[in-house]
Design brief:
Belongs to the GST superfamily. Pfam families: GST_C, GST_N. This is Thiol:disulfide oxidoreductase. The chain is an alpha+beta fold. The protein folds into two domains: about 120 residues, Glutaredoxin; about 110 residues, Up-down Bundle (Glutathione S-transferase Yfyf (Class Pi), Chain A, domain 2). The chain contains ten helices and four strands; from the N terminus they run βαβαββαααααααα. It has a four-stranded mixed beta sheet with strand order 2-1-3-4, covered by helices on one side. α4 runs antiparallel to α5.
Amino acid sequence: MIDLHCVATGNNLKIAIMLEETGLPYRLVRYEMFAGTHLEPAFRRINPNCKLPAIVDHAPVDHGPPFSVFESGAILTYLAEKSGRFMPADLRGRSLCQQWLAWQIAGLGPMHGQAHHFVRYAPEGQTYGIERYRREAERLLHVMEYRLAEAPYLAGVYGIADIACFPWIGGLGLIGLGLDDLPAVSDWHDRIAARPAVAAARAALMDENRSLYTRVRAELTPEQWSAMFGDRMHAASRIR
């Protein structure tokens, strides 16, 4: 059994999709980020970075004690190695998969994440931040378009690089972007969205707090801001 420590957002959807695709047994351990439930010492022992998602594998392949993994790219790689699926075995395919996974971790995710922050959460009037990150988010979509115009999936075959990128494409409308001039990305997204494992993951992750994370413009209370971006979040990372 694998515990998926999660909240109903895109980074967490990646891991739920992978677990559904592989058929590995799992259970959800839910948090509410605006309330700061992920900032408690118990979760920090699982993820020193106090971010979601994270997993705890209660049956690792080395037959040792439960093993925790944090960071979504590392989790996807761990689950691919555990299951023997969704990571090509040949040298070139494996490297392509790793390259596009690294691209998502270093580029697509952070740039789109910053676009979401400045468009949806930052105090209004932050025009430079909005322009900077939304423009970079759009540029990265065209990088995807270039690749997907020549191959059906990022590494040639469906795998963890696609799973890592997929949730970010579903949230484009929240930052004022779309797929109208990106036909290859649009087709790729639709094919992945139609997979039964993706539908199952979306249904499993859905909870009563989902609407909190999908508001186009989020007005946070001081307590919510502190837990998400402010003093409480920073304090949770100090040694104690």
